[in-house]
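Re: weekly structure request thread

Next one in the queue (206 aa):
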Amino acid sequence: MPTVDMYNTAREKVGSIDLDEAVFGAEVKPHLFHTVVRYQLAKRRAGTHATKTRAQVSGGGKKPWRQKGTGRARQGTTRAVHWRGGGVVHGPHPRSHAHKLPKKVRAAALRCALSKRVQDEALTVFDAFTLSEIKTKEFAKVLKAFEFDDLLLVLPAKDDVVARSARNIPGVTVLPVEGLNVYDVLKHKNLALTQDAVAGVLQRLG
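Done, posted below.
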């Protein structure tokens, strides 16, 4: 069972915490990372790219020239796909890029990502993380104390004060436990959870 030190925001050790082996000590399977990150990014795609077919392009109602006698190939409309300004054949249309992935696979990948951060000694546990007011300088002090150049901070629930204090700092993401995901864990070199967030993760994945 992995055991890590627990700190306050001033980087003073206040104890230690035992992490569940099934969630923070799982076998790391890189192929799951590819599968789940691809799934997440596909869901995020807007899918609003579109082209117009010859039926949707305006104009083209008049026949360009008479059918016979001109020496040119017959044409019925200037909006055919081979004309400049015409429609697009087999072009993209609005659609969802999302695809299905079993919940067990997504949960297994998240366990692997958390376990990898433990193996890399890139997981920090806070006893609590609160700010009295929205102040970027206060959040930056914590980053400086722990020498973090980037960080994913996971809180037990949504905290607007902490989130708004961190939103202008490059490389920092603040998420509640319910928003914890594989892509953000892998994207950031450092992962930090509060003691209550660890309990929330165990409840979600244990």
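The longest strand covers residues 13-18. Residues 103-119 form the longest helix (17 residues).
Next request, please.
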